Amino acid sequence: MITNMKHIKNKLEAKGVKPTYQRLCVLEYLEKNMNHPTVEMIYENISKRIPTMSKTTIYNTLNLFLENGLLHAVTITGTELRYDINTSSHHHFLCRKCGKIVDIEVKCPFCDGEITQIDGNEIEEIHGYFKGICKECREKNDKVGR
Amino acid sequence: MITNMKHIKNKLEAKGVKPTYQRLCVLEYLEKNMNHPTVEMIYENISKRIPTMSKTTIYNTLNLFLENGLLHAVTITGTELRYDINTSSHHHFLCRKCGKIVDIEVKCPFCDGEITQIDGNEIEEIHGYFKGICKECREKNDKVGR
DNA sequence: TTTCATATTTGTAATCATTACAGATTTAAT
DNA sequence: ATTAAATCTGTAATGATTACAAATATGAAA
C-alpha cells in the first residue's frame, strides 16, 4: 500500500489544518509507521529527509494534530507520550520485556460510545491499557528455556 | 478510621519490606490520601514531619513498593506518575478541567482476571482510563452558564 | 558494648521529555 | 513587490526521574 502525498494533504485540509511540508512529512510518517512511535523516532526519521527539521516543530505539529483529532496520544509508559494515527476505538498492550506497543482489537462495554457518563462524570475519551509479555517475547523465552 | 502505625508496619513486613521510619510514613500517607497523589504531593506533606526527608527516598520507596505489589502506578496524565494504594481491580477517570483523578468502580470483561491472554500476549496488568469532565466541574459549569 | 559489614538515606548532579520564547523564514493576500 | 500573519527553528528553561557517592543507621558477631 502506497500512501501518496495527495491523500495526506487532503486529510490535513479536511481537518482545517494548513498542509505545510513539515506537517505532510509528520503525517506521512505516522501513516507508514503505526507502531506508536515516540517523538524521538519521528524526529530521527524525518531529519534524514529534512536536515533542518526542528524537534520543536515535531512537538508543535503533534499537538496541533491532537487538537484537531488527527491523532491519539498513548500514555502507557508513564515517562513519554506515544502517538497513534489509528483514531478508531481500540486498546493497547505494552510488553514489559521488549517495550513494544501493539494494538488490541477487543470489544469492551465502553468502546461503542453508548456509555457517556459514569457516576456523573462525563466521558470524552476511553483508554484501555494491558501490560505483560508479548507473543514474540514469550516464544523467544520458551526456546531459551528448552 | 484511624490508620495506626502497627497496621502499616505489619503490611510492610507481610510483603518482606523492612519497615523503616521513612517507609512507614510514605505508606501511611498513601493510606490516608487515596486521591492518587504525585511524588511532589507526598514529598511536600512528609517533609513537614521529617524535614530531612529526601525526594530521592520518596522515589526509592515508591519503586520498592511497586516491585512488592504494595502500590499501583497510574500513568493517566502522560507527564507524571500517580500512585494508588488501592491495588484491587478498578479503573480511573481524569478530569481535563480540574485535573482530579477519581476511582471508577465499573465492571469490564477483563477485571475478573478470567482473560489471561489476547492474541498470544500474556496479560499481567489491566488499566482502564477515562478522560472528560468530572461531576463537580460539570455542576459548577451549569451554575455559571445560568 | 564494640566492631564491622550491610542496608538505607541523603543531596547533588545528570538525564530525558516537553514547553517557552524570540528571531528567522515562509506564506498568502493586497 | 509589499506586508502582515503564520510557521519554523534553535536555544534556553522547566519538570519528572534516575545515577551516584557520601553519610547515616541497622543488625549481627565478637
Structure, explained:
- 2 copies of one chain form a homodimer.
- The first copy, chain A, has 146 residues and is of the alpha+beta class.
- Chain A folds into 2 domains: 5-74, Winged helix-like DNA-binding domain superfamily/Winged helix DNA-binding domain (Arc Repressor Mutant, subunit A); 88-145, Ferric-uptake regulator, C-terminal dimerisarion domain (Dna Ligase, domain 1, 2-Layer Sandwich), CATH 3.30.1490.
- The first copy, chain A, has helices at residues 5-14, 21-32, 39-49, 55-67, 135-145; strands at residues 72-74, 82-84, 91-95, 101-104, 117-118, 121-133.
- In chain A, β3 and β4 form a beta hairpin.
- The relative contact order of chain A is 0.12.
- The mean pLDDT of chain A is 91.
- Chains A and B meet through β5 and β6 of A and β5 and β6 of B.
- β6 (121-133) of chain A pairs antiparallel with β6 (121-133) of chain B, so a sheet runs across the interface.
- The first copy, chain A, binds a DNA duplex (30 and 30 nucleotides) through α4.
